[in-house]
Design goal:
The protein is mainly alpha-helical. It has helices at 2-16, 19-25, 27-36, 44-59, 76-84, 90-97, 101-115, 120-129.
């Protein structure tokens, strides 16, 4: 039911031209979208909204000093996977990067471990705070 409500709000925002307002005034909604977006049904407006959220978060002042840096930096391959994480499924990442689905899974496990997270949404949030996205 929540997905239908959020979807209706996004549809109205798109039609009325205040999609960016959602980004700046309702971070809970955009966090929900990032976590629950269904990449199988790609919606360009949702992808634009997620991109806007990531840009807005990246433009915020530096993260608190208590945020610990990565013990081990991400490899170039892991960074490519990370950049696709907000809007793509494993299969879509594999297709775009011309690698196997298992390779994507392996890189994601490594990314999660290096970021110290356990989920896609946590990885995205941490990556934004570290300015990796």
């Amino acid at each position: 039911m929540a997905a239908a409500i959020v979807g209706g709000a996004i549809q109205t925002a798109r039609q009325e031209g205040y999609l960016n307002t959602i980004v700046s005034t309702a971070p809970q909604v955009t966090s929900y979208l990032i976590e629950h977006a269904t990449p199988v049904h790609r919606d360009p407006s949702i992808e634009q909204l997620i991109d806007a959220v990531l840009q807005a978060r990246a433009a915020q002042p530096d993260a608190p000093r208590s945020l610990r840096p990565l013990a081990e930096p991400l490899t170039p391959a892991e960074l490519r996977i990370l950049k696709l994480l907000p809007t793509s499924t494993y299969l879509q990442m594999a297709e775009v990067l011309y690698v196997s689905r298992n390779t994507v899974k392996t890189h994601l496990r490594s990314i999660y471990q290096k970021l110290g997270v356990e989920s896609r949404s946590q990885a995205i949030e941490r990556a934004v705070k570290l300015r990796l996205l």
